[in-house]
Amino acid sequence: MRKINILSGIAVAVLFSMASCDVIEGPYTEGNALDTALCPPKNFMVKEQHTRKILLEDFTGHTCGNCPNAAETAHELEITYGEQIVIMAVHVGFFAEPYPDPNGEFGTDYRTEVGDDLDEAFGPSAAGLPRGMVNRKPVSGSPVLAHTAWWGIVQGIVNDAPSADIQILTNYDEATRTACADVQVEVLTSISEELKVCVFLTEDSIVDWQKDYGASPSDIPDYVHRHALRASFNGTWGVAMDTAPYNSGDLDTLRYSMVLDSAWSAPHCSVVAFVYNASSLEVLQAEEVHLE
């Protein structure tokens, strides 16, 4: 088993090009042990049963008046399939820009470096928000889909046997606002392509402004933003697992820490991890665990 120790600052950015997605920049060091007082090592359980979990990336913006419809679709999928649906609301593009209103309406900036990278790579805002990706699985050549198509993709893969499993164990030090995440990926079948692992932080239950064309008035001051992407522990495109090919039973363990922004509510934060095919970018498995 390989163990990777990575000490992370706040957000880690990754520069992406379709020719190469391995250029990593950010305020972290690889190979240094974490502060074990703040991030004590965790012991993972041995799992006998594994459940397929699906990553839903909902590209949105607070001045996108049609985006609440997509958020509702995501919520309905979550209600139907429970923990099998892992949601990230990624604020991107023009509709995510802070609005220059003197009263502070739409003044919060939910954009992230990760979201900007994903928008550049996949083009959801250019396609017109709301858009989303279900396991980054392509349909007719593109993984970027209207929210009306999400149900069909989810129903087609939700009962598939997973080819990998993820466990996440967390620790949070309130005094320093340090969030710690131990992530273990277990390969469940033989896989010949290189795999990468991403570890992100999301925040739920953020009450703020949102435009909603289905409401009157359309500018809602107390809209509840859910599953908002806040930052990455290991960059937009994550880190590679051991050199392919992989065999059933192979394990990879990663350890990270992050100091939370003062504006984020730790009790509402979650760690999201997913493993994906480095060539096709399709997500094989996802997991989400509350920080506290």
Descriptive notes:
With 292 residues, this protein is mainly beta. It has a single domain, classed as Immunoglobulin-like (Sandwich). Helix content is 13%, strand content 37%. The protein is built from four helices and 17 strands. Strands 4-1-15-9-8 form a five-stranded mixed beta sheet, with no helix packed on it. Strands 10, 13, 14, 16 and 17 form a five-stranded antiparallel beta sheet that branches. A three-stranded mixed beta sheet has the order 6-5-7. Strand 16 and strand 17 form a beta hairpin. It is globular and about 55 Å long. It starts with a strand and ends with a strand. The N terminus is likely disordered.
Largest sheet: 5 strands, mixed
Instruction: Determine the CATH topology.
Output: Immunoglobulin-like
Domain count:
1
The N- to C-terminal Cα distance equals 28 Å
Low-confidence stretches: 1-32
Strand content: 35-45%
Continuous helix count: 4
The proportion of residues forming helix, as a percent range, comes to: 10-25%
CATH level 4 superfamily: Immunoglobulins
Strand line-up in the sheet with most strands: 4-1-15-9-8
H/E element order: EEEEEHEHHEHEEEEEEEEEE
Overall radius of gyration: 18 Å
The mean pLDDT is 89
Classified by CATH, the class is Mainly Beta
Structural class by helix and strand composition: mainly beta
Shape summary? globular
Search tags:
single chain, 292 residues, mainly beta, Immunoglobulin-like, five-stranded mixed β-sheet, 4 helices, 37% strand
